[in-house]
Amino acid sequence: MSAKDFMHAKAHGIDTSNAPPKDDSEMYNAGLYEGDIVDPNFASSKVIGEMFAHRNDSALLRGSSLMNAIRDRAKKWPNHRVPYVISSTYTERGVLLTCIRREQIAGAVAMINQLNCVKFVDKTEDDKDYVHIKPHIGCFSPIGRIGKELNHSFIPYRVVGYGCVHSGLIVHELLHALGFFHEQNRADRDDYITIHFENVQAGTERRFAHYCLLRENFEKRSVTEIDHLGTSYDYGSIMHYPATAFSKNREPTMVPKTTGVEIGQYEKLSEADIQRVLRFYDCTDTVPEPTPPQPTECLDEANNCNEAGMCDREDNRSICKKTCGVCPG
Hints:
Organism: Anisakis simplex (Herring worm)
Strand content: 5-15%
Number of strands: 7
Keywords: Disulfide bond, Hydrolase, Metal-binding, Metalloprotease, Protease, Zinc
Oligomer: single chain
Structural class: alpha/beta
Cofactor: Zn(2+)
Distance between the termini: 28 Å
Pfam families: Astacin
Mean pLDDT: 69
GO molecular function, one term: metalloendopeptidase activity
């Protein structure tokens, strides 16, 4: 990811309210746990088979279930560092027929990195475990770092799918990669939401109930499986699915027991989301202010800044500062 990508993301902001209405349906994959979580222990999934096709180790199917990742500190990324790469098919203009652009991925990465805790960093040759962001049919991620115990070789993560056209949805998947589950699967969720099984897609009812491959989206986890990290249930978590997730009739499958609240926002990290990241990765509970950028030489960051009309758009002026005469100072 280049500095230009992050500058574009900053210029456009995380809020994509001017974009077409977001479609989060790609997060509800029938063959994946809770719709967008990859558990490599269940190799019957076509997606999992593709992801781990290069592996030839029976240990992939033994133990080490990702169901308990947030309790398993071995799934944490060491040294507050998450190496990552993104596919070259993501461009400034989008990938294939989607509206995903590098700046949207950059915006998601920046939203997490600005916490100054665990950070996504460019992969180096020495990094054997890393997050691999690439296009795919569907939008999904494993929970936490899979690790080097399997032949000490890297495991490429497919994190962002065709349907993740919003920085907030990408953040949701990146938080899975950091080690976090869905909010609606907390042990105490029945105190806060009502599950309407009559509206749930046929064959997915047990996604609200007990673990069963392909039928587990709404499984309630016990406190022995998931660590709430001292935080209360959060309707506003970016990890909470919307009210109509897995609905067969567009009627709510989840209804908050508190009136006047909404669930399923993908605009920002909630305060609870932030505290969980900080606590899981042993950072301070106080979110530090971002370090102000240091003055740098004012240069154009694109080769076509002299083209007619380039300075008419604000986002272009942010990368053509010299030509457009908007250098600071």
